[in-house]
Amino acid sequence: MDSCVAYNCTSPISGTSPIVFTQLIQTLVAAQCSLGRVDDYPPDRTSEIVENSEESFDFIIVGGGSAGSVLAARLSEQPNWKVLLIEAGSYPSASSDVPGLYTELWGSEEDYRYQHEPQRDFCLGMKNRRCLWSGGKVLGGGSTINGMIYIYGNKKDFDEWEAEGNEGWGYEDVLPYFKKSNNYPRETIEKYGDKYLGSDGPLSVRLFNYSSSIFHEVVIKAAEERGIPKVDIFNMDRYIGFGKTHMTADKGRRVSAAKAYLSPIRNRENLYVMPSTRADKILLNNNRATGVRVTLINGRTLELKASKEVILSAGAMGSPKLLMLSGIGPKEHLEEFEIECLADLPVGKYLKDHVVWHGIFLEFVNQSHARKNSFDSQDDAYQYLTRNEGALTGFGELDFSGFVNVEDPTSIYPDIQFLHSYVAQDDNSSLARTLDRFGLTREIRDSIVNSTKKNDIFGMSPFLLRPKSIGEVKLRSKSPAEPIRMFQRHLTDKRDTETLLKSVDFVKSLLDTEAFQNFGVKIRNITIPGCDKFEFDSSGYWECFIRHTAFSGYHSVGTVRMGTLDNPKTVVDFKLKVLGIDKLRVIDASIMPDVTSGNINAPTMMVAEKGADLIKASWLK
């Protein structure tokens, strides 16, 4: 820092002013240096592990993301257990700490940035008809690069898991693990009670308290006119409504799973962290997991031993990939790559993911909006670094959500979640950058941007919460360095398209409310190349728009599905043990029998909290 401020001014300022300017510079530099501090996390112990590579660990966890961070913290609570956490990525960057920069992380070194395989009826407006899919390649995984929304899901989600025979996974069983994880503000607990909310967990759950427009209040009032209530906290017993969403953030900064769970225990001696290390294969002996083969960043290969268990927490893409590379998966598929099949299981077969679509743009005349100028971004940075305030503490209207049921308005459970965005008339460059990160072709991106220049735009983006379409992941080759092949197959079940079209009808039903009419709100006609043959606002137009511009919600689950022994879809049992393989578990989003009704980071950490207790119950006699 001294090198930043130790210089000679050609025109020195007299009096006390130089001290003020120097202090300002020091304050800004110190604030920036406090972001993304490697020292906040457990140290890299790779060299120590290499030096003692013949020694055994009690547990080896593959994947340092949302689930892996939780498991590493909980298992290492036992001082006599030696726990190794392997992560393919490195430590979080400074940008990852800043909520308002989260889309800047997409496509960075902290993002796997998978590509879907080309699809016939979906991703039509994406480059090469291939949607992009982001997954965290960094300590903290997806929780380090995601939008930070913290949603449990609802009672029906988990009761359906239990109804399939997954003992102990009903809502009343998993709720204590949500509460164990989270830490709501004291005033929130005092106001709403602790039946559904936790106050002692490591994970800070807060409101952003920043919005770029007043329009979320307009939407709340319009929805109330249609009988849709305002909801203060979605993680309770009311699942339908509009309101502010709680986030994994605190004091203007992201709180990832790594920051919440690993930072407080960074000096725990029995926890070993190996970042920048790729897991290549599970070591097996007579169908018993004995360790993991890894490749270090320098290309060196090691075989690391586990005396108790190997645990895969590499996510819905990474965990099935490692299982299949190790001979656990569909026999016919493994034989394509001459991989000996040790357990013929439907690994990768039941991929589910939310579909999200940006396409419902509402235009309105915003008389109160202060037009942007070239200094605004500098002002935002100054506010953030000096006071942890301003635009960079949030991201537009991301913390404003709505949950509705468009198929059955009488239901208490939603099938559509609305996320929201706001684009000022003079800020189309930010819209262009965002659309680029989703992989849209330049032609469609420019068409959308040009169509939104007339007035301010408020976007209502529907998430399909209960998709019927089923995808699949497969190996690309037998090389661990090759990315997985992702066949999302969105909208192959026509019911999914029908539900998304009804979400348009819901938005249109708000147009004649007093709240919307007071702002002159109307749906903006967006010209989409390839949809010219359809009249605007026809069902053909909207379906074409959806098939060109909708994409995955980055909420993939089900590729290592949990179930009963007699269910042909099952890969792991209700204790998360891989069928037919001893001392091997999978604990991450891939085990979920179906995707939950909301963003999946919260239920992924719940799975890890419960998984840690399942492991302790097995080994602590």
Major β-sheet, in short?
8 strands, antiparallel
Instruction: Tell me the Rg in angstroms.
Output: 25 Å
Which spans have pLDDT < 50 for at least 5 consecutive residues?
Answer: 1-10
Proportion of residues in helical segments: 25-40%
Number of helical stretches of at least 4 residues: 19
Mean pLDDT: 92
Broad structural category: alpha/beta
How many beta strands in the DSSP annotation? 25
Distance between the termini: 53 Å
Strand content: 15-25%
Taken from the alpha-carbon principal axes, the silhouette is globular
Q: Which helices and strands, and how do they pair?
A:
Elements: H1 2-5, H2 17-33, H3 46-51, E1 56-62, H4 66-75, E2 83-86, E3 114-115, E4 132-133, H5 142-145, H6 155-163, H7 171-181, E5 182-183, H8 186-192, E6 203-204, H9 215-225, E7 241-244, E8 249-250, E9 253-254, H10 257-262, E10 271-274, E11 278-284, E12 289-295, E13 301-312, H11 315-325, E14 328-329, H12 331-335, E15 343-344, E16 355-356, E17 360-364, H13 376-387, E18 400-404, E19 416-423, H14 428-437, H15 442-451, E20 456-464, E21 472-474, E22 485-487, H16 494-509, H17 514-517, E23 522-523, H18 539-549, E24 551-552, E25 584-586, H19 601-619
Parallel strand pairs: 1-2, 1-13, 2-10, 5-6, 13-25, 14-15
Antiparallel strand pairs: 3-4, 7-18, 8-9, 11-12, 12-13, 16-20, 16-24, 17-20, 17-23, 18-19, 19-20, 21-22
Helix pairs in contact: 4-19, 7-19, 14-15, 16-18
